[in-house]
Amino acid sequence: MPQESSHEKKPTRKRKTGTNGPGTDEGSSSLKRPRISRAQPSKSKGKAKATSHVDVLGWPEHFESALNTVLAFCSSRKQLAITFPVVRTSVEGLLRHPLELSKVAELKALLPDLINFAYIPSAQLRIHEDSAKDVMQSQTGATADFSLPQGPVNTNMRPAGLSIDDDEEHVLVLDFIDPSKGKKTSNLGFLYSLPPALTPAATKKLVEKRNDRFVQAVNELLQATPAGENPVDLLQAAARDHIPISPNKSKTIEAPRVVPDPQHRPAIDDVIVEIQEQEWYEDQIVHRRVLEAKQGQLAELDPPLPENILTALKDARKITSLYTHQVAAINALANGQHVIVSTSTASGKSVIYQVPLLKFLEADPYAKAILIYPTKALAQDQKAALEQLLCACPGLEHKRVATYDGDTPHEHRAGIRETASVIFTNFDMIHASILPHEDVWRSFLKNVKLVAVDELHYYSGVFGSHVAQVIRRFRRVCAAVGNRRVQFVSCSATIAKPGQHMSNMFGVSNVAEVTEDGAPSGRKDFLIWTPPLRDSQDPSSGFKSSISEATALMRFLMARGIRVIMFCKIRKSCEQAMKALRAELTADGRLDILGKVMAYRGGYSPQDRRKIEHEAFSGNLLGIVATNALELGVDIGILDAVIMLGFPIGGIASFRQQAGRAGRRARDALAVYVADGLPVDKHFAAHPDELFDKPIDDILIDLDSKIILEAHFQCAAFEVPMTIADEQYFGPLTKEICESSLKKDEDGWYHTHPKFLPYPSKHISLRGVEEEKYLAVDISRVGKPGGQPKILEEVELSRSLFELYEGAVFIHQGVTFLVKEVSHDSKMAKLLRADVNWTTEPRDFTNVDAIQTHRIREIKGSSQCAFYGRVELITTVFGYFKVRNNAIIESVDLDTPPWERETTGLWLDVPKPTLQLLQTHGINAAEAIHAACHAFLNRFPLANDLGTECKVAEKEYKATESQRKRPARLVFYEHSGKSGGIAAKAFDHVSATLNAALNAIETCECEEGCAKCERFTVIITTHMPLRVCM
């Protein structure tokens, strides 16, 4: 049984000194002081004069200082870089004597977590890209090289491809880690504080608040000092480790720190104990669950496999026995059934279709098979494994295996059709290339014995609905050429009702469902990690960022030889985490580790992604920072730990899928969920059992969408003329759609309508219309010897608008670039490498307007109506913010062309009496409409393929009333480029969906929000929590 432990109460434990954070092995000492309660402020009425709230306990004269006053003054003005020379001048003017570094180091020793006293690159103090140095003279000319250097890594050298000038100027900064911030906006949806510019009264209050912390720290030191010892001597001894050493002067080569070999890494349980003993550990672990190791359960095939296949499994895969779920699936296929296997990650699911495939190829020299994967990376991974297996199987070495996808050259395709026994492909190619040309594929299709579809859970919503029709067209064409013996096998992560889902997707019965997992697994520790307060004595200081917690934990694990993958929800957070790791590892001198960490996400070129996959699989990497692009089963070698930064957008199913990526080879493993600040994260941190015990939602597809069916009927009729008898494949709407949408000949056959000829498949995109892409091109080396522009990545139009504008900070592999020029005509953005310590956030708005009504439907039980028709979306980026530490340092205006597109949607106007009622009760109408939109979506099964107008009531930090007035309307639209008829489906069921949403809200027992209420706040990460129930 799983063991659980709550960490709300901790036993007293001894903590190690000499560590500043999770990524360090050696470091500065800090004084240990007992926590004492604060004195309570006066409760007198009115505005009492601000005074210190902490009593001074008869201090020695040594502790008197005016340093804090100057620090508070400096931090209240963004125009001042708080460098030590600036502070020193002011302090010496107050103290009337020189201020030594050792005195400031004493302050750092007293408040190690609150004061930053260190050298940083001067570039990190910039506010403008042309300050200090013109960015054209960037100190870094090269961009990331994805191949690692051969041989031992020199810890005193920077990673390949990122050679920064060794003489880079550093400056000494002195500041509080929690800098003062400006006035908070009342807009809950706006994440950033305003540029700091404190009034004299606010500055005085800040000074007194920080003096309280200083006084409290000194009092704690005095109370903790043993009798007979001098507290001043103790403080001065601790301060020696906090005196910064300038990198500009110090060329000392320290002894290299060695990372343990991952094969000899410490046990995960020991690592968790070590974490809890660290100085920086502040009870972040709020829940721990242990899944004990499980022995594998073996079974025997009857009849046994042929000797040559047994030899191949042993030589190529080191397999000498099969697990119970593998035997059950192989036997079901041998009995003529279709099979779906839904077991844990790394349970050997690929063997389930590889073994029957070898048997088919051995029994019939003309046998063919089609293996279908959702991503090209996964297909390449499995192709290599099958080739290895065939080469080790006597008698099958000559069988050809080939990839047939969009990257396959046209001149090679005919040869693949004629000579390949197995093709690795995807549904896009089956839809657009194989089925429309069934005449040239006829021989191949006639001999197909097996079709394997991996990662079946990937196909859902509109995409899955299209795929279901492609499979039916495939079965129909195979039957037309005389092949009714095709068997289907699919593999999936753990999903709800796998057998039913396969039957719906493939349109077949006689499905064997295999869910009992017989594979062994090592012990796995699950931790839920919540960021602590910035200052444990001041709740108003806020919490530390989840990114800093996750990257610090990742550094700690990698330093101990533990191979880690960090999953991020979106590409931007992936790059920000990589940027943070790069900065932290560099500052800590762990360039040996930095050289073994890479980011992996969509947008990178295929070549770069293959190189990263190769480095990971070869065991050259200690850390990977990735989006869910690696959530699927690409084999990237042995992983010991998974860190999930925030709750995955894919829900509990994605959480379990990501957690399963660690411990793939039966070793002990670790999965850490670092909770973000969103309501859904707070919920699961408070209710962790739901992550492990809550059932997974059903995977939904729409088999009755007339829009999807009509589109595929045009394709099916082109492949083989249709008849009413095709109802056996496409269901009861076949006759209606054939008669209304196809062209009937005199013999009763239905043909493609002429307007869709010559190739009707070109009128359907299974994944939606492919967007135009912008090229992000690094021009840092242009004009230098041997310098050439380099394409960093391709950025979809929908993303480029928010990432590629002049002045934007673009991050690639954690390296920062500035966008210097954007050409919308050539779809190209020119980037320059620049070391900046800020990020940029676009200032934008999107208008969603109904422009033409096609249909009107009365809402049952109401006098109101719903409308369906054309919807126009216009997105405008009118500027951007420069942001540092979640505070705005500058606001910039832009003049960029708007992004206009049209789609279909439905909308409901809010009656004036309802608006008046909201106003009477003091409810913001825009927020209420927003919540109502998500209440509707929460009750609509295919909501993932609909969008709504997610926006806050007032944009940014405007104090004046917004002039961009929007109609009081609930509006929903299909995502641009997708034509699945989902908006029409929502319109047809609008009354039932509204009633279901109303009933869910009225019957929900929660008061402050529950998982159902907060489900869709994952989508709207910049908005307020919504009181919306399923």
UniProtKB/TrEMBL annotation:
InterPro entries cross-referenced by the UniProt entry: DEAD/DEAH_box_helicase_dom, Helicase_ATP-bd, Helicase_C-like, HRQ1_WHD, MZB, P-loop_NTPase
Domain Helicase ATP-binding: 330-513
UniProt region (Disordered), positions on chain: 1-50
Organism classification: Eukaryota, Fungi, Dikarya, Basidiomycota, Agaricomycotina
Presence of the UniProt keyword ATP-binding in the record: yes
Helicase C-terminal domain span: 549-707
Domain of life (superkingdom): Eukaryota
Pfam families on file: DEAD (PF00270), Helicase_C (PF00271), MZB (PF09369), WHD_HRQ1 (PF22982)
Gene3D superfamilies xrefs: P-loop containing nucleotide triphosphate hydrolases (3.40.50.300)
Coiled coil: none
Keyword ATP-binding: yes
Naturally occurring in which organism (per UniProt): Somion occarium
Record key words, sorted: ATP-binding, Nucleotide-binding
UniProt-recorded name of the protein: P-loop containing nucleoside triphosphate hydrolase protein
